Amino acid sequence: MKSFRHLDESECIARAQHGDALAFSELVSRHQDRIYRFLARLTRSPDDALDLTQETFLSAYQALGRWRPQARFSTWLFQIARNLAFDQLRRTRRVEFVALQEEQESAIQDTAPTPDAALQTTQRLRALEQALARLPAEHREILLLREIEDLAYDDIAEVLGISLGTVKSRLARARAGLLERMPH
């Protein structure tokens, strides 16, 4: 089996656009974890996130001929993932945030020396998850894209189909809303 790990992204994309399924497979392996994490947090369902991740890459494969280098490939994938997720959330009328699972909580590495500090950290994380869950979906998604996925403002604007100024103001409102919902 041919490996494309040595190729940069644009070369993989060009080969995939010319029908090379292995090149597209390499693109999937490079991006699937970020897309899955984003979808899992957005939909609050690991199973739905798996299905939507597959749908995202299937849609991307089918539309690959229309992708243009002016858009970053990862940004384009986030757009597809977001649209699919919100379509599903609208159908099921479910817009919540993923809470940490018990096994994830126990896997959190805490460098604090005392059990009390570990308990405080866990409580702060739960409070953050609860505060995020109470945010409107548009604020939650913009925080996920910026703070978790570390997308640039321009990329967020492209993913969400909004202006750069709207990204900045929505992000400011989302951060303020999150702070308001955090216990003092």
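That was protein one. Protein two is written in the same sequence-then-structure order:
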Amino acid sequence: MAVAAVTPRVRTIVICDDVAASRTEDRVFTLKRVRQHLEAASLPWRATLRLFLLLSSPRKGKYDGKVLIVDERNDRVTRYVKFVAEFEDDNELLPMYVEMSECVFPEAGHYNFAVFFTARDGGEALKAEHPFTVRSPEE
């Protein structure tokens, strides 16, 4: 069976400055300063970001995942973060966020947030990508 078929699906990706979990409701989050781009005052630019994900899986279990930020111009990875998604039931929707911490954007241009999951047999699948633009003061 293909790796993509036995790993979780990414239903939603939202890049934001911060995510706050509700103190009173389970699986409810407030997303702060949702971004499609970033205005850099100077370059390289450092930004603390979070990646909010809505995942689904037909099978319960723990799945290792990772997020890469890739500079589209040269295919270089500028940030790499591992995470674990744990599904308690079959066919569960799982909202979660990944703390990307300090992300360094060396230059203005187009970047991609890429989400991967690893299957139990060790195979890896790209499950989603989200474009992100860094703009310089000159633009």
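Residues 3-135 form a domain with the Immunoglobulin-like fold (CATH 2.60.40.2550). Keep this in mind for the problem set.
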